[in-house]
Amino acid sequence: PVYNFVFGAGSASYGRQRLVAAVTAYQRWQQLAELCDSPYLNEPDDAEYNQATVLAWKGIALAQLGNVEEAAKIREQIASLRSTLRKSLAEFDESSDANRRMPPQLQEPFDPPSDMLNSDNDRALPERVNREFDEGAWKDKSPEDREQARKRHQMRYRYYRLGIRLAALDSHLASQRGDYRAAVRLSHEAREMVELPQRIEWCSLAGAHETSVQKIRDLLNSSPGQLVPAALAVWVSHRAILDFPASVSMESWRETRKRAAQQCSELAWACDPKWPWIERARLIAQEALPEIEWGKPPVVPKDLGDRPSLDSLGPVRWSAPAAPLWGVGTSMGEEFSSKRMEGKPYVVILYLGFGCLHCAEQLGKFSPEVDRKSVV
Fold first, then answer.
1. Which pLDDT does position 128 carry in this prediction?
2. Residue 329, H or E segment
3. 281 neighbors 267 (Cβ within 8 angstroms)
4. Which of these, 232, 211, 209, lies nearest to 220 by C-alpha position?
5. Rounded to whole angstroms, how far apart are CA atoms 89 and 142?
């Protein structure tokens, strides 16, 4: 249960990350807004700065659904939280000699970014702060100074993370205003919350066709058999072809469009046709590549070889492993071991705590069976 939070290093955290990634990848914004108000993402007892992540996701969903006014209100909530934390950090520095800030120094000149999607030198973005405190840098200091430095680092890390949430929400708000260059720039630091396909789409809408086609081609090459890169590649390359018909990259763009449309058509049969990216890819292929048969289910091979009945295999081929001996203490203070169940079939349920939604659902299914005579 200690790991069963929206954030952290536990399996519950990773499961929620994948849930959000899947919903955002396929732009299920209404579903994302509903999830933000559900126990699957929203934990009222969680830290306030962690709750800002759920707020940011809800703001992003509302912005994409066209409710920009409500999204802007959420943006102000996160900004207020960050402003309060910044004041607390300043007060902490003023009261601590060990962590007193050094005078500001002039920044060295830096090279301009190579392209819109690699803006590593954008100084307007939040300063990057590692999660882990550098214990080695303070090992020779007193325990008091080390503890003060650790507290300050934790505050700085929360401040940095809130900046990422703001950048992610601001990038979607910028896209709703039609300012796609700002959307790409703001999303650079918020890449953990703004997926690369979304950033490539904004890059294309900003008119950076060479960069957007190259990036989606790289993603297409590294993601064989995936629908999202293929659907986006059809549209991105098609936009480049229409906007720059005299480009020296025309043949390459056409090859990318055709290859992506072919891959997309082979996967589209199992996809929701209402998904905007798949629908626009279908319309492009229908007009520009009529030879591609769209959305045809794959042919199931008829020759699967000899497949003997599973009943005929038996324990010669496979046998279930023997369960290890175990013993536990009951809630009544008694000892209970597997020896008492020897020779009888039984089910062991591992229960992490009521904070685990799946554990609670599982107990809800099994509890009615406990009183049945067939259950020992």
1. 79
2. strand 327-329
3. no
4. 232
5. 21
